[in-house]
Amino acid sequence: IPASAPLRAGSMVSGDGSTIKIAVTPLTELAYRQAVAAAAGGTPIGTAITNANNQVSSTFGIDVLQVQPVDATQTALEGATMEQRAYVLALAGISQLSMTGNLSLADTIGHMMQSEAPATDVTTAQNDFLANNSRNRTGYKRMTAALSLAGLGSLKAGAVDFTITLPLTSMVNTSNGALASCEYTLSDAGSANSVLATTRFTPATANAAPRLRMIVINTNLISDGQFATLHFNVPFAAAARDLQVQNLAVKDQNGATITGVTLTVQ
Predict the structure, then answer these.
(1) 101: phi > 0 → left, psi -120 to 50 → alpha, else beta; which?
(2) C-alpha span between 81 and 203 (Å, rounded)
(3) Distance between CA atoms of 200 and 47, rounded to whole angstroms?
(4) How far apart are CA 38 and CA 63, in angstroms?
(5) Of 46, 55, 2, nearest in space to 28 by CA
(6) Contacts of 262 (CB under 8 A, 6+ apart)
């Protein structure tokens, strides 16, 4: 990091002499630049700093003023919180974005400033890092899970509702509590408007593994075979057999339940 392009962080302080501990990273630099731009446009500096930190934290799902990232190694991540793991993978994504675009870190952050969807850019690069980078030492990998139905026979399904339980320390890219759109694809023989999905991700707790509920509706109807593909960041040792399907409900185009159907993950 050259002296001409430092990484910075901005925070409002109480003035009571208390200590503030902030990890200075590309994400705090992104917030710093946003605050400077807002202040130049007339926003009071205190408001600009608070708004920028809140915006970056919300966009990436990480409190950039409170979370302390750890080393991007399996050993460090095994003892980290889920927010720390998310921070590390976001930073890995920024590094990959810089390498892929052959950009300096300063220019990569500038690109993120101009992007309409910086979190999506970083997520895509993060996924590339986990899937293809030989320097990945995080203990995580990309998993692609193909979802298929069997048992419909001559019947057709209009909707499939199910929950998938994931390995305990899995990392899922979400947006407002739902699976990010870049993390799944839906099979459809008709138009793009004929199939849609609703998802809800529930993080792991002390008593339960993380789980994803998904409802797929297809007005062209669904036959036996593959109907969706999901992507997750999972521990190296995880396999498709570790994804457990629960609460499967299959309905026809009139909303009547179809029994005897199974959903497999491969």
Answers:
(1) alpha
(2) 12
(3) 33
(4) 20
(5) 55
(6) 149, 150, 151, 248
- Both tokens of residue 129? 């890092």
- Segment 97-127, tens digit of pLDDT: 999 999 999 999 999 999 988 988 998 999 8
Using alpha carbons, select from 235, 219, 145 the residue that is nearest to residue 185: 145
What is the structure's pLDDT at 146?
94
Q: Are the CB atoms for 248 and 257 separated by under 8 Å? A: no
What count of other Cβ atoms lies within 10 Å of the Cβ of residue 7?
17
Residue tagged 């990959």 (tokens): 96
Helix (H, G, I), strand (E, B) or coil at 168: coil
What is the distance between the alpha carbons of residues 14 and 29, in angstroms, rounded to a whole number? 21
The pLDDT value given to residue 190: 47
pTM as predicted: 0.82
Instruction: Give the C-alpha distances (Å, rounded to integers) separating 226 from 188, 206, 242.
Output: 10, 33, 19
Specify the long-range contacts of residues 30-34, CB closer than 8 Å, at least 24 apart.
Answer: 30/56, 30/109, 30/112, 30/113, 30/118, 31/55, 31/56, 31/57, 31/64, 32/8, 33/109, 33/113, 34/113
The string of pLDDT tens digits covering residues 149-200 is 999 999 999 999 999 999 988 988 887 788 888 889 888 644 455 788 999 9
Report yes or no: 228 and 214 within 8 Å, Cβ to Cβ.
yes
Reference 108, options 173, 25, 50, 11; nearest CA is 25
C-alpha–C-alpha distance, residues 116 and 59, integer Å: 11
**Inter-residue contact 19 to 102 (CB < 8 Å):** no
